[in-house]
Amino acid sequence: MSNQSVELIKAPIKKELEEFEPKFRASMKTSVALLDKITNYIIRRKGKQLRPIFVFLSAKICGGVTEPTYRAASLIELLHTATLVHDDVVDDAQKRRGVFSINALWKNKIAVLVGDFLLSKGLLFSIENKDFQLLEIVSNAVKEMSEGELLQIEKARKLDIKEDIYFEIIRKKTASLISSCCACGAASAGADIETIEKMKKLGETIGLAFQIRDDLFDYEENGSTGKPTGIDIKEKKLTLPIIHVLDNANYADKKKIINTIKKHNENPAKVKELIEFVKDNNGMEYAKMKMHSLKEESLNLLAQFPDSPSKESLKELINYTIERKK
C-alpha cells in the first residue's frame, strides 16, 4: 500500500486517527515499569492501522464517530495485539514485519504475560465503560480466531482440506476480525441490529478476499529474491490454489502432491516443482477468480449505504485488499 493511497484512504478520518493515538496509549497504561517499556515498544512498531481505519470508516458510514468508536478501535487493537504476541510465541517467530518480536527481546514467559495483560486490559476497558455490545462482538472474533487456528492445525496433520473447510478456516481465522471492526464501527455509531449485521457481513467478505490475496503471495515471485516463497507449503498449509488443484487431479498426481507436502516440504527443488504444477493447473487463476467474486460481493454490500467520502475510502480499501503487493 503506497503512502499516497494510504493517505487518500485515511483522508475522511484523518482527525479521528490522530485523536485515537493518545487514547490508545492511555488504554495500555500501567504502573509496572517493564510492562510500560514493552507496551511503548508495541505502539512504536505498529503497522498500517488497518483495523482502526475499518472501525472509523464504518462508524462514519453508519452515522458518525462517537466516543465509543474510539473505545471500539482501542479494544480491537488491544485484543488483536494480544493474539499476535501469543502467536509469535507459539510460532517461535523472532521477527514480525521486520522488527524483533516481544519473545525475541524479552523471552517467552514475559511475552505470554504481556499478551494476557493486553487481553485483560481490553476486557476491563469495555466493562468500565459499559461497552457490552462492543465487547460481545470482539470477544466472539477472538474465539473464532482461536477456533480457526486450531481447525487449520488439525487439518494440516491429515492434509484433507476441502474448499468448504478452507473457507471455514479463513472465515474464522482472518475474516472474523475485519468483520468485528466493521460491526463495532456501526454499533458505536448507534446503528440498528440490521445495519450492524450488514456491516459485519461486509467485513467478513473483505476479510475472505484479504486472506486469499495473502495465500497467493506464496506462489508469486518475491521482490527481494525473485522466487516464490512457498512458506505455506513448508508449513504444510493447504490453501485455495493447491486445494483446487488437488480436487481436480488424478490419483497419481494427488498422491505426488500430498507426498511432497508431507515428506519433501523442506526441499526447495520439490517445493518449486509443486508451485509450478499448481500454476500450470489453474490453481492461482481459480483462487483469483474467487477473490474477485468476493470483492464484487463486498462492493455490492457497500453500495447499499448512502454516498459519502468515507464510503469512497472504504471502496478504495476494498480494492487495495486484493491489489496489494505485500
Topology:
Elements: H1 3-10, H2 14-27, H3 33-44, H4 50-61, H5 67-91, E1 95-96, E2 99-100, H6 102-128, H7 132-158, H8 163-188, H9 193-217, H10 231-234, H11 240-248, H12 251-263, H13 268-280, H14 283-302, H15 309-323
Helix pairs in contact: 1-15, 2-5, 4-5, 4-8, 4-15, 5-6, 5-7, 5-8, 7-8, 8-9, 9-14, 9-15, 11-14, 14-15
Q: Distance between termini?
A: 8 Å
Task: List unreliable stretches of 5+ residues.
Answer: none
Taking the sheet with the most strands, its summary is: 2 strands, antiparallel
| Helix/sheet category | mainly alpha
Our count of helices gives 15
Task: Report the portion of residues in β strands.
Answer: under 5%
| Count of the domains | 2
Here the CATH topology of the largest domain equals: Farnesyl Diphosphate Synthase
Can you walk through the features of this model?
Strands 1-2 form a two-stranded antiparallel sheet. It has 2 domains: 16-201, Farnesyl Diphosphate Synthase (Orthogonal Bundle); 218-298, no CATH class. The chain has 15 helices and 2 strands. The relative contact order is 0.11. The chain starts with a helix and ends with a helix. It is globular, with a radius of gyration of 20 Å. It has helices spanning 3-10, 14-27, 33-44, 50-61, 67-91, 102-128, 132-158, 163-188, 193-217, 231-234, 240-248, 251-263, 268-280, 283-302, 309-323, and strands spanning 95-96, 99-100.
